[in-house]
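quick q for whoever's on today - can somebody do inverse folding on this one?? i tried earlier but teh output was garbage lol. tokens:
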């Protein structure tokens, strides 16, 4: 049985986080969309005004994966929630409980912080992840469609006079 440890990330983990971000982007066929670098990770996750947190996962003492999350808010519940932005475990460490341990650490954080929800998104073609999430009791929210403004569209809309 693998020895799995989860701990809060520190700025010293920025290069490992960046490595995992690139691995995840390659897996999701979107490597070209990664525009940050290690300095960007240091500032955005560990900078003084950051609202982002991260956990690192180790299997038998080797860095195996990470989770990046932040607190959101539900007006209906009147409570914070946790939104999991990214969770990634390197392929050689899958199947030993590393992903489940990362999710469990965030679920514990959500309960400790009196959060009403713990949410994330998954690509509709990522069947292994979908099966994994359903195996722990998570359910898809199929009635919601996620929208995004980014890049030029975001700049253009922000510049529009209303």
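ok took a stab at it. sequence:
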């Amino acid at each position: 049985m693998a020895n799995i440890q989860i701990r809060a990330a520190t700025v010293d983990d920025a290069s490992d986080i960046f490595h995992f971000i690139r691995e995840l982007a390659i897996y999701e066929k979107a490597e070209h969309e990664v525009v940050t670098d290690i300095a960007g990770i240091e500032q955005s996750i560990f900078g003084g005004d950051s609202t982002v947190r991260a956990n690192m996962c180790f299997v038998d003492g080797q860095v195996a994966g990470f989770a990046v999350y932040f607190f959101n808010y539900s007006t209906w519940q009147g409570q914070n929630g946790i939104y999991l932005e990214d969770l990634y475990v390197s392929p050689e460490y899958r199947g030993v409980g590393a992903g489940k341990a990362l999710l469990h650490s965030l679920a514990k954080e959500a309960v400790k912080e009196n959060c009403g929800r713990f949410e994330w998104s998954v690509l509709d073609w990522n069947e292994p992840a979908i099966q994994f999430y359903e195996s722990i009791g998570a359910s898809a929210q199929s009635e919601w469609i996620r929208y995004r403004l980014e890049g030029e569209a975001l700049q253009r809309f922000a510049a529009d006079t209303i």
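fwiw The mean pLDDT is 96. also Residues 98-112 form the longest helix (15 residues). so keep that in mind when u check it
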